[in-house]
Amino acid sequence: MAGEISFHEMFQVPTIRKVMSTIATPDSYFQHYFKMAPGNAPVETISGRYYGWDIANDTRTIAKGRAPGSGPSTTQAQPLGTKMAILYRSHESIPILQEKIFRTRPPGADFGMVDIEGQRYISRQMKRLTQRFKNLREFMISRLFRGGWGVKVVGEDWIPVELNDASAVYQVLPGVATGHTGRLLLDGSTAVIDTLWDDPSADLLSQFLNLRKYSSRKSGYVVTDVFLNSTTFGHLMRNINLATQAGTSNVIFQEWKSTDDGSPAAHSARANVSVVKFRALPWITFHVYDGTLRVGSDTDSTAAADQSLLIPDGKAIICPQPGEWIGLVEGSEIVAKDVMDQGSEVKGFEMWKTRCIDPAGWHLKGIDNALPIAFNPDAYFYADVTSDA
Length: 389
Description:
By secondary structure, the chain is α+β, with helices and mostly antiparallel strands. 20% of the residues lie in helices and 28% in strands.
């Protein structure tokens, strides 16, 4: 096609100063906040992919008294339950022909510099492949709070899609507790979100105090964190009650900071998220997160219509701080990294490079056996908080 150039023509342009991406993808805030990123210690690492856990709830009942000289009263033994899950397996490779990258310039370098083995090109492709696995974990965590996701099948590929996608053949359903979605009809009748947050008169203090009381009674975990996007958060900045309770001489918030300190390491690890605390709600931390992913397609795009917000407009994920109620479980499988390898057990996320011949080249490979799990689904909420939901 007119205007297109070949790979070798592109890598023989005389003056090149750096490599740039027109799409920034540091959307890893969920997995870093909940300690589920590759490299973080998982809640548990198992052999294989089948995972189960027993439920043995603490009790709130009170011991009975007995008269002096009498024997003990009897009480019920602790009831036990069991839940099961199959960990999600992702496995991808990028084939690279050695002929394609032999004696080309390194990406981001001037003509005249020769990367004989193409190692810098390979390193960039490994980085891209790693990002896809990180994106998968971020997708799974976000959909854990939203009730699950679908999987469509194309040949031997399993492609994650939205839960309501008509093309989904399978569904992954971690589940959200009854009454913990929508306007939060926690007792079956009265909505905690009795006034939507795009109404400036919404009494957020009463809503969060009611939610605190309910959470303490239902799960024992007190909600402390709210995740929402900028559009939804903008309504809170216009809330009359939050301003009144803060005092007319004060700004509405007592703390506003960014998770991105400007360093390359921080920016590559997570998105620039604003963390805000309001004076009227000092125990609640609001995380303003506008992360997006391209769901159901391998073609990158910057068009807004092609992006899927990790937190949709009008929605809020409300939960306790990370703890025993949530975690990531990593599984394992046997992997042989070359023809001489007898095979070894690889746990969680792993990357490697396999040599191939006829034609000469490499297969860059990655694998991940993992699943985020809400061990106590009563601990979190996925609420409709504005009319945009």
